[in-house]
């Protein structure tokens, strides 16, 4: 809608400037100046499109023709009565002035009344288009602000039941994490750099959250490489980062199901013998004590912003649900 408004307003302003330039610059009827000119929308005398420029030109041509026809008899009559004009005086002059008051402006194609109506109409159209444009922009701005200021917690379609095996060799489910604030991260033990960096950040944030707000959180690592990440491999891996970090793995189908539930992308890259990498989402999920999704934190969050973000969400959650 905004593009239509801009187009119509620009067409009208261009037509109005064209009209004013003809009225101001020329003292003779515009019929002599409204001949076909080189314009990208005109070919010969044919006007292509329904733009306001074409309508304005046809309007001026009609008005100029009408004025020409009206002035012709007047000029003929003045030629015939030329000899009698010298005899008139006094009251005759006043009558000429009264009759001239209703005629067109001398040398102009339109009367002052027509010119005034045209200006008022143009101003009204410009005002209307500008008002509609501002109204449309305000609606877009209001809608975007509503999205930005919306609550971060909600019933997003992230999360769900799962059954995996921990780094101690015991099967656990999502119900084992009820009553705790949980931070989930998906990765793989053969990751060269990103996963170690993210897990170090996660471990540091867990300690900072405890230190600053006294909030206990449970860090969880879920493997997306079930073929190589055995229970023993995961156990050796998680203890390098934090004593509270829980490592989970499972069969390919079990990993596929939990990744789908948490909207996590992962895919093996080109294999060279048994060595390969896994491309995957780099996200830390904050789950409520009900194991419902609260918020996610991306790679751009450092330790401080991650800790502060978790503390803020926990306080807001407790205030909302009075827990």
From TrEMBL:
Gly residues bias: start-end ranges: 83-94
Disulfide pattern: 191-195
Residues annotated as domain Thioredoxin: 151-316
SUPFAM superfamilies hit by this protein: Thioredoxin-like
Record-listed Cu cation binding positions: 191, 195, 280
Regions that span the bilayer: 110-129
GO cellular component: mitochondrion
Family the UniProt entry places it in: Belongs to the SCO1/2 family.
Protein name: Thioredoxin domain-containing protein
């Amino acid at each position: 809608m905004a593009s239509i408004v801009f187009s119509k307003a620009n067409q009208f302003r261009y037509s109005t400037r064209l009209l004013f330039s003809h009225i101001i610059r020329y003292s003779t009827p515009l019929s002599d100046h409204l001949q076909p000119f080189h314009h990208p929308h005109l070919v010969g005398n044919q006007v292509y499109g329904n733009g306001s420029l074409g309508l304005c030109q046809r309007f001026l041509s009609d008005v100029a023709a009408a004025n020409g026809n009206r002035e012709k008899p007047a000029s003929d009559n003045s030629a015939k009565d030329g000899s009698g004009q010298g005899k008139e005086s006094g009251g005759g002059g006043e009558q000429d002035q009264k009759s001239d008051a209703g005629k067109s402006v001398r040398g102009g194609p339109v009367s002052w009344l027509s010119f005034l109506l045209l200006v008022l109409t143009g101003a009204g159209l410009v005002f209307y288009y500008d008002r509609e444009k501002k109204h449309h922009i305000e609606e877009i701005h209001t809608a975007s602000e509503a999205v930005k200021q919306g609550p971060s917690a909600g019933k997003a379609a992230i999360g769900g039941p799962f059954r995996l095996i921990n780094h101690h060799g015991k099967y656990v489910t999502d119900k084992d994490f009820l009553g705790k604030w949980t931070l989930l991260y998906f990765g793989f033990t053969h990751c060269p750099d990103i996963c170690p960096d993210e897990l170090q950040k996660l471990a540091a944030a867990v300690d900072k959250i405890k230190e600053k707000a006294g909030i206990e959180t449970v860090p969880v690592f879920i493997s997306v490489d079930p073929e190589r990440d055995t229970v023993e491999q995961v156990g050796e891996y998680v203890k390098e980062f934090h004593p509270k970090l829980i490592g989970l793995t499972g069969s390919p189908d079990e990993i596929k199901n939990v990744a789908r539930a948490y909207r996590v992308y992962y895919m093996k890259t080109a294999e060279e013998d048994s060595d390969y990498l896994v491309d995957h989402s780099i996200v830390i999920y904050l789950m409520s004590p009900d194991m419902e999704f609260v918020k996610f934190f991306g790679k751009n969050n450092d330790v401080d912003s991650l800790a502060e973000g978790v503390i803020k969400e926990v306080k807001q959650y407790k205030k909302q649900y009075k827990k």
